[in-house]
Design goal:
There is one protein chain. Helix content is 32%, strand content 18%. By secondary structure, it is of the alpha+beta class. It folds into 2 domains: 71 residues, no CATH class; 127 residues, no CATH class. The protein has an 8-stranded mixed beta sheet, with no helix packed on it. The longest helix is centred in the last third of the chain and has 25 residues. The radius of gyration is 24 Å and the shape is elongated. The protein starts with a helix and ends in a 13-residue tail after the last helix. The relative contact order is 0.20.
Length: 240
């Protein structure tokens, strides 16, 4: 299902939605995305959809660079970590964590991608204070950057649910070749014609919620204006 088909389907649910010039495709699309995100957060909080690729977007190659750990904390030390070269798009948040399906190091031994565990920066600093050598790699998000505890990690693959559509230029940056390609047709495809990340079993709920929101917002306002007599048409029969 594409976003364009969803918009058309919702317009077809009521004649008023298809004829009102104020309700543009942009307005309908914004309502669809808002309601979709609402339902996806509900489902992931219930531990559903985590094992699917229906809702997550993959960054096949996210470049990292070495920085001092003091950049993202108040911990003063010579220790260095890796940070994404550029800020990443905003990731959706659930009740317990960022909605990240996985972060994978692409320069692991043997050429295999290694999954990295999530941790908070404060918890990692507490680990550094312990008299034990930690060989495990961890990641966290801070100030819209992705951090990985190993400074040797040069590239990672990030799979997450983002709050907005991510442009191809961000997902596939120049100069970062991890063997992932995108066809010219997909690169130039209108966002409305791309597959919309919505599980099939939630489509009806999204349509119903969006339809109801649009009707309440646009057509109840018109009714209220008429009932109050603001448009000059209503008559107060009690007036003498």
């Amino acid at each position: 299902m594409t976003l364009r088909k969803l918009i058309s389907s919702i317009r077809g649910m009521n004649k008023m939605l298809s004829t009102d010039a104020l309700i543009t495709d942009r307005v309908v699309a914004a309502e669809i995305k808002s309601n979709t995100m609402l339902l996806l957060k509900r489902e992931t909080n219930l531990r559903r959809l985590w094992a699917t690729d229906t809702i997550f977007t993959t960054f096949p190659c996210l470049e990292m660079q070495e920085v001092n750990i003091a950049e993202c904390s108040d911990y003063i030390d010579e220790a260095t970590i890796a940070r994404s070269k550029y800020k990443i798009p905003r990731i959706a948040e659930g009740n317990y964590q960022y909605l990240i399906q996985g972060v994978y190091s692409l320069n692991a031994l043997g050429g295999r991608a290694k999954k990295i565990k999530e941790i908070s920066v404060n918890r990692y600093i507490n680990l550094l204070k312990l008299p034990v050598i930690k060989n495990e790699e961890y990641f966290w998000i801070s100030n819209d950057y992705l951090y990985v505890t190993s400074p040797l990690v040069a590239k990672v693959r990030l799979v997450a649910l983002f709050t907005e559509d991510v442009p191809n230029e961000v997902i596939y940056p120049d100069g970062c070749d991890c063997g992932n390609t995108i066809s010219d047709e997909d690169w130039c495809r209108n966002p409305l014609d791309k597959p919309f990340m919505l599980p099939a079993y939630l489509e009806k709920q999204v349509k119903d919620l969006t339809h109801q929101d649009l009707m309440n917002t646009y057509f109840r306002q018109k009714t209220d204006v008429s009932d109050d007599g603001i448009d000059g048409q209503a008559i107060n029969i009690n007036k003498k």
